[in-house]
Amino acid sequence: MNLRSETRGICLVVTVDADRIDAATAVQFKDDMRRAVTDTAERVLLDLSAVDSIDSSGLGAIVSVMKYLGADRRLELVSLSQKVQTVFRLTRMDAVITIHENLERAVEPAARAS
Amino acid sequence: MNLRSETRGICLVVTVDADRIDAATAVQFKDDMRRAVTDTAERVLLDLSAVDSIDSSGLGAIVSVMKYLGADRRLELVSLSQKVQTVFRLTRMDAVITIHENLERAVEPAARAS
Amino acid sequence: MPPENHARQDTVRASAAVADSRIEISFEATNPAARRAIRSIIGQVEPGTVSQEDIDVLEIALAEVFNNIVEHAYQDTGRGQVDVAVEMRTPGMHFTIWDDGEPMPAGRLPGGAPADPSLDAHEQAEGGYGLFMIRQLARKLRYERTEGRNRLSFRIKLSSA
Amino acid sequence: MPPENHARQDTVRASAAVADSRIEISFEATNPAARRAIRSIIGQVEPGTVSQEDIDVLEIALAEVFNNIVEHAYQDTGRGQVDVAVEMRTPGMHFTIWDDGEPMPAGRLPGGAPADPSLDAHEQAEGGYGLFMIRQLARKLRYERTEGRNRLSFRIKLSSA
Ligand SMILES: Nc1ncnc2c1ncn2[C@@H]1O[C@H](COP(=O)(O)OP(=O)(O)O)[C@@H](O)[C@H]1O
Ligand SMILES: Nc1ncnc2c1ncn2[C@@H]1O[C@H](COP(=O)(O)OP(=O)(O)O)[C@@H](O)[C@H]1O
Q1: Which has fewest Cβ within 10 Å: D29, D93, D112, D145?
Q2: Ligand nearest to the CA of D145
Q3: Cβ–Cβ under 8 Å, residues D24 and D44
Q4: Per DSSP, what are the bridge partners of residue C87?
Q5: Do chains D and B touch (3 or more CB pairs under 8 A)?
Q6: CA nearest to B94 within chain D
Q7: Which residue from A35, A49, A42, A51 is spatially nearest to A7, judged by alpha carbons?
Q8: Each residue of C46-61: pLDDT tens digit?
Q9: pTM higher than the cut 0.80
């Protein structure tokens, strides 16, 4: 799993450079994410703009990263494809995790307050 | 098989309104063509612009229409898709039947002389 | 692999009416083979006849079902055959899927569960979403354990584009 | 249909190395089912990895092979099963195709013939183009009649897009 990370103010932006987070790649994603988020800011923005689809294993991996971050740090998602949105909607995960339309919206002050 | 025909000077233009001439439709095509070309001018232009693909059965049906027209009347083809061209090239049928890029070219005087 | 061919026997039984709307696909229980099988099934849909949203739903449902077989029924051994019978029955596709792996827990299809809105994000379950999605997307979902095989059948609605 | 499953037996034999690059597809010998099977096979190609020209060649070759089985081996009865094993082996797809219909004339694969440039258009043959195209497009083409089944195998080259 290719991850690129970059600090933006109080946020760490992690960009996934793969077209799927699925059964075949979920474990790798989880491991690489844990490595990427060590010692970071409060907010981790996961940019999924390159990701076309995700399955329940990928979803499980994202939950596992959230568990790893614990109660004090937050994982938020950015730029979901139609298909990825469908998976978040079907599992009602869209009600418990913050999802931003794009990176600009995610880092603007209003979003920070939400 | 939907065929539309129209007289254009000394030509009868027959337009195929189907996306394939294949094993499933070849017999119908042959029958409908024979009906369409009764008592017509010397040149029959078969407009294939709507046809995406053809197979050897479709090719056989076209040969059968040419046999029906005999030595005095000619069948010429117009507007072949990439895939249809490939079939004519592979079977070397492009060397024995006149193929026009488009209808304008087919009906212009130069083409008539060829 | 013991390919006792129940899929084929069903074909023969069902052949009269639906024969030429039915195709069978078999693959080894690995993730790459499952993905190719999904593309192969989606490829059967006549281009332009079905909305992209319905194609997405088809892809999501099949991925969850096949991944469960690879991961749970065959326990990620990468060995074992998956047989799929696909029938076009307007307005949808009907699937029957067989495998020779482990049965479902307690011999029944688990319910699965969605995210729990009363909990924080980091307190959500890491699993169970697969079956919850399958149950939401598939109609006439039915699981049976017969003659040592798992048999799952369901229908996915496909509305026109 | 007597689905004596030689396709499956071959799977087991060949499974070790190529297992997860192999998918099997079965369908009834009708033109619509053959078309769906072709779409299903083309769908297995990862989108964007292969040139449109190579996809066209794949479609043309499979259409000729399947149409011959529908028309000649099963003589347009619409009854009879066609089993296809598809293996991805870079740089191409390898096919093995079985049917239970009539054997090839004289038990051998005919040559087929192209148009004859020394004849006028209206003097050309009406048939024989199918096999000629198959022979031009397929590599390692091999026909065998074994245990009452026809078995045709060949490879189609797929170069990257
Ligand atoms: N095909 C199957 N064969 C055996 N057990 C299965 C199968 N599919 C699902 N299960 C069981 O059902 C449980 C729930 O499945 P699912 O909702 O897909 O979540 P997950 O795969 O994330 O655990 C699995 O943990 C497994 O115990
Ligand atoms: N699968 C098959 N089973 C039996 N006979 C076949 C098969 N394929 C081809 N043939 C024989 O080979 C001949 C040539 O086939 P082909 O080149 O496709 O031309 P056509 O189908 O137009 O006759 C056929 O006429 C038929 O006699």
Answers
A1: D145
A2: 2
A3: no
A4: C22, C94
A5: yes
A6: D115
A7: A42
A8: 888 999 999 999 999 9
A9: yes
Question: Cα separation of D102 and C47, whole Å?
Answer: 34
Strand C81-89 with C92-99, pairing:
antiparallel
Classify C90 as helix, strand or coil.
coil
**Length of chain A, please?**
114
Residue B64 has phi, psi (to 5 degrees) of: -65, -35
Give me the residue from C31, C64, C124 closest to A96, CB to CB. Answer: C124
**A64, A46 in Cβ contact below 8 A?**
no
Lowest mean pLDDT among B86-90, B104-108, C30-34: B104-108
Query: Residue D43 to residues A83, C47, C56, D59, D89: CA-CA distances in angstroms?
Result: 19, 11, 15, 11, 16
Number of neighbouring beta carbons within 10 Å of residue D160: 10
ipTM: 0.88
The CA–CA distances, whole Å, from D37 to A49, B47, C72, D107 equal: 34, 29, 29, 26
| Res A37 pLDDT > 70 | yes
Query: How much is the pLDDT for D8?
Result: 43
Q: With beta carbons less than 8 A apart as the criterion, state whether B94 and B85 touch.
A: yes
Subunits with 3+ Cβ pairs within 8 Å of C are A, D
Asked if D28 contacts D81 with a C-beta cutoff of 8 angstroms, the reply is yes
Q: How far apart are CA D22 and CA C33, in angstroms?
A: 7
Cβ separation of C119 and A96 shorter than 8 Å?
A: yes
pLDDT digits (tens, 9 = 90+) for D3-57: 444 444 443 333 333 456 899 999 999 999 999 999 999 999 988 899 999 999 9
Q: What is the mean pLDDT of residues C127-145?
A: 98
Q: Which residue has the tokens 């008592």?
A: B39
